[in-house]
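Much of our argument rests on the idea that a fold can be written as discrete symbols. Part of our work consisted of pairing the sequence of a single chain with a tokenised description of its backbone. No coordinates are needed to read the tokens, only the vocabulary itself. The record that follows shows the chain in one-letter code together with its fold in token form.
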Amino acid sequence: MPLGQDDLSAWRRTNDRDILSLATVLNARLAGASVSDHQEKARARPLTRRERETLAWIAAGKSYWETAIILGISERTIRHFMANARQKLDVVNNAQAVAEAVWRGLIPRLAEPLQQIP
């Protein structure tokens, strides 16, 4: 029985981030990068606690404005944190930043509850 458009949309909402994470890992493997390469990058330019918190809320689907309200800081500061995180993670957009941060274990997977970021 084929999936309807609503079923497919619901499945994608549930699984897109995991698929993106898997695609990131697969791409790194195909490009010859190893887990240790990514760990070395992470040690060289670690994310701050606030950058990790911001990434976690963006990963949870919050907008910059919503994240700013949650963290009690300005939207401009959120944009700054995300720009820094993208640069440190060597990615070009927020989706890649989230996938890379999840893959490196810097933020919890979406299925895990958001708690205090260490």
